[in-house]
Amino acid sequence: MEFPMKGVEHKYIVTEVGNRVHCVVAGAGPPVLLLHGFPEFWYSFRYQIPALAAAGFRVIVPDTRGAGESEIVEASDKYMWNDIIGDTVAVLKGLNVTEKVLVVGHDWGAMFAGQLSRIRPDLVRAVVYLGFIPFTWRAQLTLVEDMRLVFGDEVYIHVFQVSLPLSHLLLQEKTSSLMLAFLSRWSDDPQLRIPKVSSDKEEALPDWITSADLQFYADTFDKTGFTPSLNVYRNFKRSTELNAPFIDTILEHPSLLIKATRDTGHQNVSNSQLCLDPEEILAANKPLFPNLQKVVVIDANHFMHQEKHEEVNKAIIEFLISCPPS
What we know:
Blueprint: E1 9-14, E2 20-26, E3 31-35, H1 48-54, E4 58-62, H2 81-94, E5 101-106, H3 108-119, E6 124-130, H4 137-141, H5 143-151, H6 156-159, H7 163-171, H8 175-185, H9 211-224, H10 227-234, H11 236-242, E7 255-260, H12 265-268, H13 271-274, H14 278-285, E8 292-298, H15 304-307, H16 309-322
Parallel strand pairs: 3-4, 3-5, 5-6, 6-7, 7-8
Antiparallel strand pairs: 1-2, 2-4
Helix pairs in contact: 8-9
């Protein structure tokens, strides 16, 4: 496959358990690790990679196992949080990263950023959470059930737990149309259902998605399918149970939270995520995130780092430059 972004390197790291992880690397300087969410892969950070590289950072963007160009692991139970963290640590080791990394995570990437901070604090210098602060262990344990109670039986995270009906639903749609629906309309649905493809064959693209972007998303997911990424969701509860030793771990790293006003899911699941007032968010999260230094609220949907990339980039870069050296 021909990659659309120039000026980056594509690396392939083989982990100690034998699976191959793809990552994009750009720039030179202090290492910044970008962790994507769903339905995404490295390209979702296309606006952040050149900006961070130009600001003097070495940018590292791995594809989660089974996503993008990373190898698909066939066993569905091998998509646990700690499997993903293991792949991430292998990437850092394979790239000879010897200093602590600045981590930026979006969607489940924010959760993985928090998990990396919990179990490998020696590797992390600071964290930027895009969308939400990682849930507490107890909230994560019942997350699927809680979201079903709040949003109903069609909420995406509940539907994602069922294999065959979901596969049929996704396969019957044109991938490019499905990706456009996810990226542009998903988080605006008050019931957070899997988005329906527009019946308008000439649906206008938002100004932050080009036709080439959309085609690259479609070509990539046509190759990998959605199942590997969905397996991450299907292992949420089991991953939480296995991480019981980290209940209420205090995350000491300096951190920044960037929230979006139209990110419906992360405003209604728990009281700690509901508020959009920066001072209230800081106060509510102080017990477990004592070094949460700032909260930035942006008028955007769930994919804020694409829709409002200039604002997000500015906030990220200002925070990362302000972080004390490792």
